[in-house]
Amino acid sequence: MSLSSLSERSGLSKSEISAILNRDRAPDNDELLALAQTLHVPPHALFAEIAPQLSLVPDFRKANPAPSLMPDGVIGAISYVERLSQSLVALDVDLSTNQRLTKYTGDLTRKNAAKLAKEWRSEWGLEFSDQLEMKSAHKVYAHLRDFIEGLGVFVIHRRFDTDLYSGAYLKVGDGPHTILINTGGSSKARKLFTLAHEFCHVLLGKTGVSNASVLKNKIETFCNHFAAYLLVPTIGLKQTILKFRYTPKTNWNHIRLLAGNIGVSLQCIALRLVDIGVWSGSDYGAWMGQYAGVTPKEDTEDPPGGSGGKDNSIQTKRTQYGMSLIRAVSTAKREGLLDKFDVYRLIGLKPKYQAEVLGV
To answer: Which stretches of sequence are listed as region Disordered (predicted)?
Structure first.
């Protein structure tokens, strides 16, 4: 990268960068973080004599998943997890997971996806009647996220600055199992589906970036089936159709009502209707045809007031970092392993918010 390009992307002047490179002065914390983020490396890599080996992340949108060129926003999100993982391991922070989190090694069939989802739905413990009472993708998402984080998995929200990818599952060395959720370009219902999809990646031990709408390989198809069965069990869906007297085969508006009552995306409901035989493949094709190959608007935008309350900056930050990450960083700070500036460099949380967000 040229000096001019580095200057433009980092927001630092060429003279400031030159002074740092020539060792005329040391960079301050903000400058160090800006340079590291621009170059997509951990801050400590700027001082290393040998460049660290960063992970190569497969792109599961491909027929044969393999590393590929990705937009800066996606690379930045991956780099964030890399430097976070390396730092937490170096600090010897407890990153253990619940013993229930075992790797799935069976065949990637629809039947096995349904069986695995049934097992994990039981572990999750959310009764379908309670899910119907929620009538909110936000509430169902929060409930599932709490469960997944309770297993020791990190769930972090990041804006990818592109809708080409909806999420990722990363495991850097001995670092934590980490799910990234792209916060841009999708409704909470669609983020819920992405969360369930990426959780399946955790169970398979398949790290990489994904878009749950792009299915070109067995792994992504399996993860989508798992997510759909986990969020909408067959018995619950059939009972809901009878309870509310929905006729989704002839009334497409009932798809919206079904999705709204269960708290999931339109596409998730549409896929499950095919699974249980209410729709045929041609019915699904006709329904999708009205969107001309574009994701339904209801799956990309939340309705007004969907979050259920006024935005709170502290709560927003807690939501961004997630319970598992906050717990790990809080412990490290409480034990004197990190100070307020270390925390800022590590996760980007400014000192003025740390007491309220981290509780220390």
So the answer is: 295-315
